[in-house]
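Example for tutorial group B:
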C-alpha cells in the first residue's frame, strides 16, 4: 500500500518534471552548458585538495621550485573555478528568465480562458501568486537538479578518495550522509505541510492587498479605512504566523543538521588523532581529509534543501498545472463552427438557466431578435435581464433550451465567431490604465487615426477628448478612474464601434447619470441605430422610447413584447413598472 502510494507520488513528480521540461525545451542549450560548467566545477573541487596536499608535502621536503609550481597551479585552479562559476551564472540567468517567461505567458493565457464565473468566485491572489512566485520554483527546478546531481557526483569522487586514504574515516563520512538523508526525509514532509498553509495565506494576502488598492476610493468614501486595516492586520498576521511556523520547522532541522555536523567533526578529529598516534596516518593525509570535509559538509546543506526543493516544486507545479490543465478552474467551452459576419438574428428557444442547478433564474424564455433592431429589455431589478446578456455573450451556458445566432446554435460557434461579433458595454466598463489611444489600439493594432476619431465622434466622446491637455494621449488611470461613469461608457461604445461587431449589448448604467451625460449616451446609441443589432438593458423606462421594441422580463419569465405604447396600453406588469418609476421620479 505504502509502496503504491510512493510510486504514485514519484509518477506525479516525474509527470510534473516532464511537463515543466516542455517550457525549457527551447533553452536546453543553456542548460547543457550549465551542466558542463558544473561538472568542471566538481572536478576542480576534487582535485584542489589533492594539489594542496602535494604543496604540503613539498613544503616539508623543502623543494622550493616545485612548491612555487604547485602554488601557481592552485592559484590557477581557483581562478578557473571563479571563471566557471561566472560563466555558469550567465547560463543560469539566460535559461531561468526564458523558461519563466514561457510559463508565465502560458499561465496568463490560461487565466484568460477560465470561465468568468470561476474567476469571480476565486480571489485574484490565487492567480497572481501562481503566475508570479510559483513560476520561479518551476523555472528553477532543472538548475537545482543539475546542481544536486553534479554535487552528488563530486561527493562520490571525494568519498572514493577518502576510502583510499582511510577506511574508518570513510565510513564515518558515509554514516553522516545516511543520517542526514534520513533526517531530511523526515523533515521534508513536515516542512511541506507548513509550506502549503503558508502559500494559501500568501494568496489571501495578495488578493486582499490588490482589493485594497483597487477599492481604495470606495473604502475611503465608505469611511471603512479602519475596518480594512483591521482585516489587513488579521490576514497579514496569519501569514506571518504561517511563515514563522514554516521557518521554525526548517530551523529545527538546521539545528539537527548542525549537531550532526559537529558530531562528524568530533569523530574525524578523534579518529585522525588515534590513527596519527598509531602512525597509521600521515599528518599530510589528515590535512587532505580535513580539506575534503568542507565539501562533504556542503552536500549536507544542499541535501538539506534537496527534499525541500522537491516538495516545493511539487506544490508549485500542482498549483500551476491546476490552472494549465485539469478541471479545477474550468475553461470556457466553444464549438468549432466559424462564421465571419453574423447578420444579427438572435433566437432564444425555451431557454432556462440558473447560476445554481436548483435555482432557475431564467424560466423557459423564448424570443426573437432581428438584424439591426434596437431592443430594450425591461423589468424589475433582479428579474434576469443581465443574465440574458451573460448567456448571449456565452459567459454561461443554458441548462435547457437553445440559443441560436443566424440559426446556428451558439454552443457550436467558435470563440472568435462569438467575440468578433458581439460587444458588451457594461454599466461600469473596465478601461485599461493606458492612454485613450492605446485603449483603442490594444483591441485593433492597425487602427488609423481617422477610424479612431470617427468612432469617438459617433460615441460623442471626441469633443470631450479634445478638451484634455494631452488629447488622445491622456492616461486614464487604473480602471479608467480619471473618467466619469458616462465617459467610460462612451469610451466602451467607441471600442465597440472600432471593433465593428454586429451585435452590441448595452447595459445602461443604473446610477442616475446627469441629464447631459444621459443625452450624450442616448445620442451615441442613436447614431448606431439601424446599422447594428443593439440590445439594451434599460434600467429607466425614460430611455426606451427610441427602441424599436421592448421585451419585458418578470421574475425570469417573458412577460410581454411590443413598443412602449403597446405595452403601456395592454400589459398590467408594464403599467405597474411605469407607475412605480413615475412615482420615483416625482419623489426626486
Ligand atoms: P437584472 O439584470 O434583471 O437586475 P440579473 O440577471 O442580474 O437581474 O439577476 C437575476 C438573478 O440572478 C438575481 O436574483 C441575482 O441575484 C442572480 N445572479 C446574478 N448574477 C449572479 C451570479 N454571478 N451568481 C449567482 N447569482 C447571480
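The residue assignment follows.
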Amino acid at each position: 500500500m505504502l509502496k503504491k502510494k510512493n510510486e504514485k507520488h514519484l509518477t506525479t513528480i516525474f509527470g510534473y518534471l516532464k511537463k515543466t521540461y516542455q517550457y525549457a525545451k527551447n533553452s536546453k542549450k543553456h542548460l547543457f552548458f550549465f551542466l558542463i560548467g558544473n561538472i568542471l566545477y566538481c572536478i576542480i573541487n576534487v582535485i584542489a585538495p589533492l594539489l594542496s596536499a602535494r604543496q604540503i608535502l613539498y613544503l616539508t621536503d623543502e623543494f622550493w621550485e616545485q612548491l612555487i609550481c604547485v602554488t601557481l597551479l592552485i592559484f590557477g585552479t581557483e581562478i578557473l573555478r571563479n571563471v566557471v562559476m561566472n560563466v555558469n551564472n550567465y547560463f543560469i540567468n539566460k535559461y531561468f528568465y526564458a523558461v519563466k517567461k514561457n510559463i508565465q505567458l502560458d499561465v496568463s493565457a490560461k487565466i484568460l480562458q477560465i470561465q468568468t464565473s470561476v474567476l469571480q468566485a476565486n480571489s485574484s491572489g490565487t492567480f497572481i501568486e501562481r503566475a508570479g512566485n510559483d513560476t520561479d520554483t518551476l523555472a528553477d527546478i532543472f538548475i537545482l537538479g543539475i546542481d544536486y546531481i553534479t554535487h552528488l557526483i563530486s561527493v562520490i569522487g571525494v568519498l572514493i578518495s577518502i576510502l583510499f586514504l582511510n577506511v574508518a574515516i570513510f565510513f564515518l563520512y558515509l554514516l553522516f550522509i545516511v543520517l542526514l538523508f534520513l533526517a531530511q526525509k523526515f523533515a521534508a514532509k513536515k516542512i511541506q505541510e507548513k509550506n502549503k498553509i503558508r502559500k494559501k495565506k500568501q494568496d489571501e494576502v495578495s488578493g486582499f492587498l490588490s482589493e485594497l488598492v483597487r477599492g481604495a476610493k470606495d473604502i475611503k468614501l465608505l469611511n471603512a479605512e479602519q475596518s480594512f486595516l483591521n482585516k489587513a492586520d488579521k490576514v497579514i498576521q496569519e501569514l506571518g504566523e504561517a511563515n514563522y511556523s514554516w521557518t521554525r520547522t526548517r530551523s529545527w532541522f538546521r539545528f539537527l543538521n548542525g549537531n550532526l555536523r559537529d558530531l562528524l567533526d568530533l569523530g574525524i578529529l578523534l579518529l585522525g588523532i588515534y590513527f596519527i598516534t598509531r602512525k597509521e596516518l600521515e599528518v599530510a593525509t589528515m590535512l587532505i581529509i580535513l580539506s575534503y570535509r568542507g565539501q562533504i559538509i556542503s552536500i549536507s546543506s544542499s541535501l538539506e534543501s534537496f527534499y525541500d526543493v522537491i516538495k516545493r516544486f511539487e506544490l508549485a507545479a500542482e498549483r500551476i498545472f491546476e490552472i494549465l490543465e485539469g478541471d479545477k478552474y474550468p475553461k470556457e467551452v466553444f464549438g468549432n463552427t466559424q462564421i465571419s459576419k453574423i447578420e444579427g438574428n438572435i433566437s432564444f428557444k425555451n431557454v432556462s438557466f440558473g447560476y445554481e442547478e436548483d435555482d432557475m433564474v431564467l424560466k423557459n424564455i423564448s424570443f426573437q431578435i432581428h438584424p439591426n433592431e434596437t431592443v430594450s429589455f425591461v423589468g424589475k431589478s433582479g428579474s434576469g435581464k443581465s443574465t440574458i446578456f451573460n448567456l448571449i455573450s456565452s459567459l454561461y451556458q443554458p441548462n435547457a433550451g437553445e440559443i441560436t445566432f443566424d440559426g446556428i446554435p451558439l454552443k457550436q460557434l467558435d470563440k472568435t465567431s462569438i467575440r468578433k461579433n458581439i460587444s458588451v458595454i457594461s454599466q461600469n466598463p473596465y478601461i485599461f490604465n493606458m492612454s485613450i489611444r492605446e485603449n483603442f489600439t490594444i483591441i485593433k493594432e492597425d487602427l488609423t487615426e481617422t477610424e479612431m476619431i470617427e468612432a469617438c465622434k459617433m460615441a460623442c466622446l471626441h469633443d470631450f477628448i479634445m478638451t484634455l491637455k494631452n488629447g488622445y494621449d491622456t492616461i486614464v488611470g487604473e480602471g479608467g478612474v480619471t473618467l466619469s461613469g458616462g465617459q467610460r461608457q462612451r469610451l466602451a461604445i467607441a471600442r465597440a464601434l472600432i471593433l465593428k461587431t454586429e451585435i452590441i449589448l448595452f447595459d445602461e448604467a443604473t446610477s442616475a447619470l446627469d441629464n447631459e451625460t444621459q443625452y450624450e449616451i442616448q445620442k451615441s446609441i442613436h447614431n448606431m441605430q439601424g446599422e447594428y443589432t443593439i440590445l439594451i438593458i434599460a434600467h429607466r423606462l425614460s430611455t426606451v422610447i427610441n427602441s424599436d421594441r421592448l421585451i419585458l422580463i418578470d421574475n425570469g419569465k417573458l412577460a410581454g413584447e411590443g413598443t412602449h405604447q403597446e405595452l403601456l396600453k395592454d400589459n398590467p406588469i408594464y403599467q405597474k413598472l411605469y407607475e412605480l418609476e413615475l412615482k420615483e421620479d416625482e419623489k426626486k
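The beta strands are 346-353, 362-369, 374-378, 400-405, 408-409, 422-425, 503-507, 533-537, 549-554, 557-562. Compare this with the pattern of hydrophobic and polar residues in the output above.
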